[in-house]
Predict the structure.
Amino acid sequence: MRAVVRWLIGAAFAAVICALAQTAPAREFRAADTQAQNYPTVEALAHMGELIRQRTQGAHTIRVFHSRQLGEEKETIEQTRAGAIDINRTNVAPLGSFVAEANVLSLPFLFRSIGHLHKVLDGPIGEEILASFERYGFVGLAFYDSGARSIYNNVRPVRTIADLAGLRVRVQQSELMEEMVRRLGAEPVALPYGQVMTGLATKLIDAAENNWPSYVTTGHFRAARFLTLTEHSMSPEVVIISKRAWEGLTPAEQAIFREAARESSRFMRLRWGELEEKARVEARQSGVTIVADIDKKPWIDAMAPVYEKTLADPGLKALVDRIREVQ
């Protein structure tokens, strides 16, 4: 009888040890976002953190550092690859300096609509692109929306490419974006997101390009009163985690983090749609001059050298062909 009791105690102890071995040490993960606390991406990261807290029984939590507290996007990308930042929400454009496949998603006029973008990101191509990040020191978890980017300026209405001549246009810290603006006949000025308002106010730049919510929530619409709906880029946001943080999780925990990120993406899309419509209404009511009826063909034709340079790699060219075929 005693032998049976000892065996049962030993078996129970072994089960406990096994369970503990399958759980990573509890910790708080640092997440970076350049946007304000009430912005959809920040709210989505917080939602992701709450899901992870619940599903790990409080073992793992996420602390979101919003409003560029951990640096501008390019800086936080570098810190994420080094493992100093655990989780990062960034646009794919600055990430393109590190990840070749991310540049494809930033190509101007690649996506026909937001619906086309969603079909690509939510399907096999999106999964492949997220998986490709691991070769560059990141783990891709999910895509977030970023709407369509358009050009706004404080000089004159822009109806044709010729109207951009001589304007200094702020772009993301991305070689592809700089090349795009040069091909449109303007002068690109690579500035961190947090310096755009100062740049407009001091005349360091004449123009910038971004989505509706960023144009309005930053106050840019008060400094740059001419908005042209070029919708030249629909480059999405992406949530990445450092390989160091990822490899510190068990396979079961990795599955929890990945699924929480996917669920936060769906949450973010709902919040994004609400904010985008609110921003449109506010900009229009403020009296911004909106040019919506441009002929996009000359703009698209001007991008031929950008595509030729970016798609010199046959693999990237094949990826673009597949994206264009998605219906």
